[in-house]
Design brief:
Blueprint lengths: L12 H5 L8 E2 L2 H10 L3 E6 L4 H11 L2 H10 L1 E6 L4 H15 L6 E5 L5 E5 L13 H14 L1 H18 L9 H14 L16 H14 L2 H16 L13 E2 L7 E2 L2 E2 H18 L2 H17 L10 E2 L2 E2 L2 E2 L7 H7 L2 H10 L28 H8 L3 H19 L7 E2 L2 E2 H17 L3 H17 L1 E2 L2 E7 L2 E5 L2 H18 L2 H17 L32 H16 L2 H13 L1 H6 L5 H12 L2 E6 L3 H12 L6 E5 L2 H6 L13 E6 L2 E2 L6 H9 L1
Parallel strand pairs: 1-3, 2-3, 17-18
Antiparallel strand pairs: 2-4, 4-5, 6-7, 8-9, 9-12, 10-11, 13-15, 14-15, 15-16, 17-19, 19-20
Length: 684
């Protein structure tokens, strides 16, 4: 067996995947840069993550190849980075790639000087040149020659790239107003796929924060188009192959417009955000499919992704047995081995099964003989087609699902990336808290509590969040998103439990952010002042597959500021949005979490303070109120912690029964003991 390289000592599953490559990999460390300076070699930087399909392809083609390894080891110092462990490094060099090539993705391939200045960037490269696309071998040999013979030109390019990065991070302040809220809706409406839901064409990503924004837009304006877009998108996703009809949970994205054929990796962050989104859709519509989907995502995460200690693992791979989607797809013969003749008839119709397979190989678009389970119609339509009552069909489908699940569990499972990330667990805390309240499921709230307690005890030291936990150890100073997502999760958990310690901790983490991440121009840097500076210290507000830390913090600050009566926090939210104002005005729909914060600032919040008679009855009453879709509301139970962090509640007293104080537009209305009256006032 081949001797392992340095990556065998790393905790990242992605880095360990490369530990037996013949490439002499370094992790990101000073030793690697010192070697490059000493030996006068450029750095070859490869960034990916453990569940990335094309990362696996490039590894098999090139990094396991002796010829490529010899070139890399002779002419370069090769470094491997897990983008999920070091999003700061990934963000900088992904910007470089997009700047140089007009696009990005993973695996990310960067070649740079020993002082970290990039002069070449791209994504996946095949080993050999083909179809006019240069191969990695050719690129490496050519750049090594240029490094030796035309160093001055290389250094000039590298300096220009860094200069552009520094200029790109300059302030772009501008006015923000209500027009941005309506423009964001207009942008989404213009790109909405009326046939299949979602936005744009293939590939299609869930982007839950866009749907969250649309639900809030519907709440504020009553515009039915907003909720129609949400409803159709969520139903189509649930019907599609992007949904795991056997084991539950969503795959990362769909390769086609119709949500049929997914990339099969499953990410914690997608599923956590989608629990939240489906729960809110259930609040608005009362449609059972949305509540059931939220519960089933929770079932998947607690069954397959929850550690014994209470934190959630990061992801599951797309590949198993050397093939993408093998775990999730079926031949007709495999199905016949498990199902009865009647069940096969139903499954073939409902799940769009084909004898030659419906799953196409992405590169060739040829049928593979395997089937992805997806639905073209609603259950009611299938029931009519097959001659069943809807409830009878549901029972048969559940029987089919259970049989397929048991059969699938005997297969070789995809790799699980079992590192625990603070930011993604913050999203899980938010999602489980919201679902627990909306669905009346205390067990889901308990899972959120256990997760929060784990993160706070194992991954927070002296108000410093540590980004990654693995094998009993928390490491890597936390990034903006670690704090922002965790603060959001703790706020939602407070609304689900009214245990003041969670809200107090959210405030403490917020203070740490202001002390170590705040930029005097407004907004937060991605990294703390005590963290490593990778070329430039960046501020970002763009929402990608994940919402930006600055967008979520703008949202957090309005809610926590109004809840605690600290208007300076609300003003900081305004500062964030204004500091990125020109950027927000370009394409408002690319910043929907920031636009949700803007909506709260412009159109207002309400604060409901409950002074308890009986604590248990008061909590139950507040939770009942929260089952309504009231995203502009924040809720406070007056106790010792509330008095400490929200001094304005000092003179709010109970009349013997639980007494409610509703405050809006910086004024409190007369207290009442009638929760029904409170809800009526809110609605009017």
């Amino acid at each position: 067996m081949r001797k392992p390289n340095r990556l065998i000592e790393e905790k990242s599953p992605y880095l360990r995947q490369h530990a037996y490559n013949p490439v002499d990999w370094f992790p990101w460390c000073e030793e690697a840069f010192e070697k490059a300076r000493r030996e006068d070699k450029p750095i070859f930087l490869s960034i990916g993550y453990s569940t990335c399909h094309w990362c696996h392809v490039m590894e098999k083609e090139s990094f396991e190849d002796e010829e490529v390894a010899e070139i890399l080891n002779t002419y370069y110092v090769p470094i491997k980075v897990d983008r999920e462990e070091r999003p700061d490094i990934d963000a900088v060099y992904m910007s470089v790639c997009q700047m140089m090539t007009g696009s990005g993705g993973w695996p990310l391939t960067v070649i740079m000087t020993p002082d970290k200045k990039p002069f070449f960037a791209g994504t996946y490269f095949p080993k050999e040149s083909r179809f006019g696309r240069p191969g990695l071998k050719e690129i490496l040999l050519r750049i090594a020659q240029i490094w030796r013979e035309n160093r001055e030109k290389v250094l000039e390019t590298a300096d220009k790239v860094v200069q552009v990065l520094e200029e790109e991070d300059g302030s772009s302040p501008g006015d923000v107003g209500e027009d941005l809220i309506h423009r964001a809706f207009g942008d989404l409406f213009g790109t909405y796929d009326t046939s299949y839901g979602g936005f744009g064409s293939a590939p299609k990503f869930p982007v839950p924060h866009n749907l969250m924004f649309l639900m809030r837009y519907f709440r504020r304006t009553g515009n039915d188009e907003a909720i129609k877009m949400v409803r159709n998108t969520l139903i189509r996703m649930r019907m599609g192959g992007i949904w795991d009809h056997v084991g539950f949970g969503f795959h990362r994205y769909s390769t086609d417009r119709e949500w049929k054929l997914p990339h099969f990796e499953k990410m914690l962050y997608d599923n956590a955000l989608l629990i939240y989104t489906y729960s809110e859709a259930f609040q608005i519509t009362g449609e059972e499919i949305f509540g059931r989907t939220a519960e089933e995502i929770a079932t998947y995460l607690t069954r397959d992704m929850l550690s014994e200690e209470g934190g959630f693992y990061s992801a599951e791979d797309a590949d198993s047995e050397g093939e993408e989607g093998r775990f999730y797809t079926w031949t007709m013969d495999e199905l016949r081995e498990v199902l009865t003749e009647e069940e096969m008839r139903v499954a073939k119709e409902v799940f769009s099964l084909e004898e030659e397979g419906n799953y196409l190989e992405e590169a060739t678009r040829r049928k593979t003989g395997r089937n992805v389970l997806y639905m073209r119609k609603t259950l009611s339509e299938y029931a009519a087609d097959l001659g069943y009552g809807k409830e009878d069909l549901e029972k048969i489908l559940e029987r089919i699902r259970e049989k397929l699940f048991k059969a699938r569990e005997r297969r070789e499972r995809p790799l699980k990336d079992d590192k625990i990330l603070a930011d993604w667990n913050g999203l899980a805390i938010a999602g489980f808290s919201k679902a627990g309240v909306v669905l009346g499921r205390k067990d889901l709230v308990d899972i959120a509590k256990r997760c929060a307690d784990f993160v706070l005890s194992k991954m927070v030291r002296d108000d410093r969040v540590l980004h990654r936990y693995k094998e009993g150890t928390a490491e890597i100073p936390g990034f903006l998103e670690d704090y922002a997502y965790l603060i959001w999760g703790l706020t939602e958990l407070y609304f689900a439990t009214f245990e003041g310690g969670y809200l107090k901790k959210a405030l403490e983490l917020t203070e740490h952010l202001f002390k170590h991440f705040w930029d005097e121009r407004g907004g937060f840097y991605k990294t703390p002042d005590y963290g490593e500076k990778v070329l430039v210290r960046r501020r970002e507000i763009y929402d990608g597959a994940l919402p930006s830390g600055n967008g979520i913090m703008a949202y957090n600050l309005v809610r926590i500021g109004r809840l605690t009566g600290r208007e300076e926090l609300v003003r900081r939210s305004e500062d964030i949005l204004r500091s990125f104002g020109d950027e927000l005005r370009l394409v408002p729909s690319a910043y929907t979490f920031s636009i949700m914060a803007l909506d709260l600032l412009i159109n207002g919040t309400f604060e409901l303070v409950a002074v308890p008679g009986s604590r248990a009855d008061t909590v139950e009453g507040l939770l009942g109120l929260e089952r309504n879709f009231l995203p502009e509301g924040v809720f406070l139970l007056k106790d010792e912690t509330a008095e400490e962090i929200a001094p304005y509640t000092k003179d709010m007293v109970s009349t013997g029964e639980t007494t409610f104080y509703l405050c809006r537009n910086n004024a409190c209305e007369r207290p009442t003991t009638d929760l029904g009256e409170v809800l009526e006032r809110i609605r009017t």
